[in-house]
Amino acid sequence: MQQHVPVPTAESSTPPPPAPGPGRSTGGGPGFWRTAHRRPATLGLLPLLLAAGLWLYALPRIGFREMGDYGLLDRLPVTYYLSLLVLTAGFVLGLRRAARAPWWPAAHCAAMLFALKAPPAVLYDAVRYPWASKHDAVVDTLLAHGELRPEAALSGNMSAYDQWPGFFAFNGGLVRAFGVEGAAAYANWAPIVLGLLMMPVLVLIYRTFCRDWRLVWTAVWIFQLANWVGQDYFAPQGLAYLLHLTVLAVVLRHFVRPGSAGRLRDRTFLDPAAAGVPPPTGSRQRAVGVVILAPLIAAVNATHQLTPVMLCVCLLALCLTRRYRNVGLLAVAALLTLAWDLTMGRPLFVETLSTLKDSLGELTQNSRAGYAGQLTGPGPELAGRANVAMVLAITVLAGAAVVLRRRLTRSALPLLLVSVAPVPLFVVNDYGGEMLFRVYLFALPGGAFFAAAALVPAFAGVASRHGGAKPAKTPRHRAAAVALPAVLLVLSAGFLPSYYGKEKMYYTPPAETALVTRTLDRAPVGALILATTGSFPEALHRYDSLEHWYFAEQELPENERMLADPAGYLAAGVPPGATAYVILTRTQDVYTAGEGLLPAGGFDRLRTELSASPLFRTVEAHPYGVVLEYRPAAR
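The line above is the sequence of Glycosyltransferase; the predicted structure tokens follow.
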């Protein structure tokens, strides 16, 4: 039978597929075109599948129970590092098609977030960060008593949690909804959940100033790699930070004043990657927006004490631009913050005001990291150096973009101002040795955007979304093609020691947790619990009925004096007639050594001398901890 070969017509310029012959498939038929269309999708999926296979293979081989001086770094198998390498390569390749298929970089960003931060959630049989267990204790107490006591003077710095209870009330609802025993059942998943929720918020912010999907997703990727601060764990700060960014995203997209953009609406004055200024809104629309945002701002105030201040500072910075000058919104945010501080948060607010005279202007003191000591040990020291290197890397990259891409900087000036706005808070307070980390965290969204702008240069011409001539590549673009993957790999290498270098402090064996829980359950109401630091598991269990004294959370010279006579030092601090227990655990040993609170061998000396003292009776002694009871009659 004679085969029919289709003839091209005027309606179609597509050449006909070749007629099949012996041993020849219909490669040019419809099946061929469907295969060719699917090939980019298949290529985009391969790195994800390969990385997932490597990560899953590595997961059971992570020796988290045998961590040494370098935390989790030398316990991660080679296949884990290979999975990150494959993900980075897949992300860079996906950027080439980001304009047509932005979901591929998005999928890689989500996969990288999971790969970086999910191992503790999947593997650990305890809550990561021992101090996170106190947040679980607050949820348990709230569910047990069903009331808040903002005026109560609770030991262990726990009063603030009753004064800012939003996070705990929310998780109390989740515990009831999930039917779990407590928030500890899902606490380790907080970084992944918050990270996934933050991705669309960041995209909204970045798309307000940039239409180049390559730059947008690179900024999200850099944000994840540079977010080593560890404030996205199960704590009020993580939730408040998400709400803070959500408020800013709404303001940046929907609060543009009419007639304020000027030349920024003319593309000839814009960077090729810059997005047009959002449509302006009238006074009535902005007033409605303020009403809509007010509950969200109130939620920030109910959740965390520092974040509302950061939000007000950022809104004040936006008022410096004609584009986002909205004094009404700033006034509402400031009034809500002040109203909460003078009512629910009044005790801590008044106490903070009384300390400002000592901290105001003390830049060196306010910018310190931690309580007082210097990081000691290979892992903590490496983590400290990596932290500094990461901050410098983001700062240098962002600074380069501000200088080299002035047109993009001009259009994205509000984002730059929001990033710089928290820096002056160094002048005010040290926030318990954490102001350095918090300022970096709140400056990071803008820092990541401008760092990405330094690595993803805009093409001189913009190609059509569905075709058209490709823009010509300059030497700068060819250099960026090499610099982008190289810098992303360097940032990945910096994230790992920053996030996992001190992991030995963050994982606690269940046996240690059980020891502490038994001791605190046996302690009578009003008993005094002594420990070197509050950074051990279940340290605040029954916090509403016990008193606490963390006697090593002070300057190193004072701790050295304490070690000269530990028994006498502690006995002098116990109130007459009080029942007191000393709990010394493995986690405290690791933490006080790593943070430099005690000199080398100081914890062992403390444990030995207290155990031998007639003033203290050993209640329980194990390799992972010892419990001692104070016996004043033997003095």
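Note on the example: The two ends are 113 Å apart (CA to CA). The first strand starts at residue 528 and ends at 531.
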